[in-house]
Amino acid sequence: MYRNIISNMFNVLVDPSSERKIIDLRKLKFRDLYILGRYNYSYAHKPLEKHTHGRMIEICLQDEGIQSYHIGGRDYCLKGGDILLTFPNEIHGSGETPQNRGRLYWILIRIPGKNERFLNLPPAESRMLVNGLLSIKPRHFKGRRMLKYYLERIFEAHDSGDTPMRHAEIKNWTLRFLLDVLADARQFAESRTSYQIRQVLDHIQQHVSTDFVPLKKLAAIAKLSLPRFKARFKQETGFTPHNYMMLQKIEMAKAAITSSKKSLTEIGIDLGFITSQYFATVFKRYTGQTPNQFRQQPRKQKRADIPILRLS
User: Fold this and answer.
1) 168 found inside a domain
2) Which of 131, 152, 186 is the last residue of a domain?
3) Cβ neighbours around 138 below 10 Å, total
4) Which of 21, 35, 81, 157 has its CA 20 to 30 A from that of 225?
């Protein structure tokens, strides 16, 4: 069974689609860099099955949206800007939670053997970098904004064709990425939302059940210009204001479907959706199911599917 988990996952890893860009760095003769991927889902997809990567570390960067992962009996909820590490031979997946709409990057790095160099670094530096990655304690933490930039440069270098410096550029951007991940892990502390954005979140929570709150009003509450407010909101919460409000509506819809005997049309209208069709379309976009399919699930599974947004 363990062997099947590894085999099935490698088939998925090298299977790109219109929503997933995946590059196999082994084809460029990298021994330590295996896979770099990015998905940009506009609709929720089926849950990520349990799998392992054998002797590799996987580093995930959630750029937009929210995603749950289950590792070693514990659940982790990623939001925009979060890093999550999976260590060698750890079985992980998203449990019963779908792969939500949003954008996520992942990179797979092979742990070298005792006498092997890592990314062709000198032996002492190789050991320090590898040991640093393996000894990271907080597997889930906030990453700096430059991490996405580094990964995009790897994609760019890969796509540039067989240029003389392609191999060096990919190695350089990867090293920058890994060193900053190490630095962010060392400096890790539970992130706190500023008082300004906290006021906005409270206002959204009080009013979003019936309608969307105009962005100009939210910017005024935060005492920020509209462009500055949108940038600040995304930086602190990991969501655009509109996406955050829509997610809140979907969470309210899930709770109502689970606990209420109201018709689905009534629930949608109560939450400010103009038509039942629009409500069903948006609900499926974020959950991978129609409201009716969600209602037909066993109650226990409904509760497991609801990601919890904790923005403190």
Assistant:
1) yes
2) 186
3) 14
4) 81
> Contact, 155 vs 68, CB < 8 A?
no
Select from 214, 212, 209 the least CA-distant residue to 270: 209
Residues 122 and 264 in one domain: no
Examine the domain organization and report whether 217 and 294 are in the same domain: yes
Q: How far apart are CA 256 and CA 65, in angstroms?
A: 22
Domain that holds residue 264: 195-304
The CATH number linked to 180 is 2.60.120.10
Q: Is residue 309, in this structure, part of any structural domain at all? A: no
Going along 25-116, which residue ranges are E strands? 33-41, 56-71, 74-79, 82-86, 92-93, 102-110
Please indicate, yes or no, if residue 89 is contained in any of the structural domains: yes
pLDDT tens by residue, 217-276: 999 999 999 999 999 888 787 788 988 898 888 888 988 898 888 899 999 988 888 898
Quote the CA–CA distance of 223 and 216 in Å, as a whole number.
10
Helix, strand, coil shares, percent, the chain, to 5: 45, 20, 35
Give domain status of residue 64, yes or no: yes
The 8-class DSSP code of residue 183 comes to H
Domain count, the chain: 2
CA distance 174 to 154: 7
User: What is the pairing mode between strands 92-93 and 56-71?
Assistant: antiparallel
Q: Model-level pTM? A: 0.69
Which has the closest alpha carbon to 259: 303, 200, 292? 303
| Cβ atoms < 10 Å from Cβ of 156 | 12
What count of Cα atoms within 13 Å lies in the side-chain half-sphere of residue 263?
A: 4
Asked if residues 104 and 63 have their Cβ atoms less than 8 Å apart, the reply is: yes
Residue 260 and residue 124 in one domain: no
